[in-house]
Amino acid sequence: MSFIKNYFKQKKPSANIAKERLEIIVSHQRKKRKNTSNNYTQQLERKLVAVIKDHLNIEEGINIHVVEKPHYSSVKLTVELPLN
Amino acid sequence: MNKRAQIIVITSGKGGVGKTTSSAAISIGLASRGYKTVVIDFDVGLRNLDLLMGCERRVVYDLINVIHNEAKLSQALIKDKRVENLSILAASQTRDKNALSLTGVESILDELRSKFDYIICDSPAGIEHGALMAMYFADQAIITTNPEISSVRDSDRILGILASKTHRAKQELEPIKEHLLVTRYNPLRVQKGEMLSVHDVHDILAIPLLGVIPESQAVLKASNSGIPVILDEPSDASQAYKDTISRFLGETLPHRFITTPKRKLWSRLFSTNIQEITAG
To answer: What ipTM was assigned to the predicted interfaces of this complex?
Structure first.
């Protein structure tokens, strides 16, 4: 029976397969774009720097590193505290 | 009043989809409608636009020469011999790609903006430096896409970059106006289910459809002879590009060449209009 199944499976036009695949790929790409740094991580970065400067009165030594991964992003923050 | 040209980037992400063919056709189309037009090849290192425009032997100075102040802009602009109002600025063939600096590009575009109505930027393939330079200052983008899975995905990537990495995006100005141009379209293969339809591509990318250019033998013939395909009057590709120009200038026209011709061969030979069909 499987050869009959295969026969019908192959009947599906390849253009339809392409469309289905593309719909998934493109929606993924767009979701990723929505969540990237342009929106909230950059804002977070700016606000963090502002808060630190408020409290510490330093201009340098603030390092913020945003790592974007498919499922989550992380922000690493290091601040060099002045000696005195 | 000072002129302020519209900057239009012809882009795609993927290579070989018809960016340069379209840049040549669109620039000739706009110039022959009376608009002062300049077309710039941004593909530093691999220039091709001069070949498609048939002016490769007239290139003395190029884009990079102007950026490096080795030539004046007026010396580097090549006037088209067929169409009034059209100039070509060739890309450099030899130098390294980073020669294309953002400030250099900006100053050239600023100078051109006061002299022309339309500045067409022919982007290189990819999403690297050259492509970014071509799109950076654009007001409008024509996304050239083949009805093929990798081309559509790359076009979507380009839409993302247009919306985040360009001057308009960074300055939070009105976003770049996007247009979809589907090229190398083969209605027969679409009918057989072997090729994505223009409706599929349009659905997925979800930007306004500017034109559909059929896969056409006239395109290779045009590049062979250095006469942009839009000038090959009776050809289907020429008509499709002319329609595209009309739509770009605000006219509403049905899309042609998107379904298989219904009449027989002999009537096809004696009529140019039979493939006319409305979109939808």
So the answer is: 0.81
